[in-house]
Amino acid sequence: MNWTSIIAIYALFWVLSAFVILPIGIRSQEELGIEKILGQADGVPGNFRPGLILLRTTLLSAAAFGLFYANYSYGWVDRHSFDFLIAGPEASSD
Predict the structure, then answer these.
(1) 10-48 pLDDT per residue, tens
(2) Which residues are 45's β-sheet partners?
(3) Helix 3-21 and helix 50-74: axis angle, to 10°?
(4) So what's the pLDDT on residue 43?
(5) How close are the terminal C-alpha atoms of the chain, in Å?
(6) Is 50's pLDDT higher than 90?
(7) Is the pTM of this model over 0.85?
(8) What is the mean pLDDT of residues 70-91?
(9) Which three-class secondary structure string do you get for 7-61?
(10) 55, 87 Cβ separation under 8 angstroms
């Protein structure tokens, strides 16, 4: 696999992981008992920690990409693994 492909695929895994990680552990200011500022939206997080989110996202994406690359290298699951989904009607042996 080309190194530019590795970077592009890892970036895709990172963005997907970010969307998975973002809502985990976030509490609104109302849930935390913090007063809202006039005009503030109701869903504003009261405990947003971007550093922790970046760390978790990087760890999750590294693990997912590691599994992807291992599968690419060793061929555990390939396109023939899904042939049962498109198998046509079986010929009768009459």
Answers:
(1) 999 999 999 999 999 888 888 888 888 888 888 888 888
(2) 28
(3) 130
(4) 80
(5) 48
(6) yes
(7) no
(8) 83
(9) HHHHHHHHHHHHHHHCCCCCCEHHHHCCCCCCCCCCCCECCCCHHHHHHHHHHHH
(10) no
Q: What is the amino acid identity at position 81? A: S
| Single-letter amino acid, residue 55 | L
Helix (H, G, I), strand (E, B) or coil at 66: helix
Burial of 41 (0-12, 13-18, 19+ CB in 10 A): exposed
d(C-alpha 76, C-alpha 94), whole Å = 37
Q: Would you put residue 91 in left (φ > 0), alpha (ψ -120 to 50) or beta?
A: beta
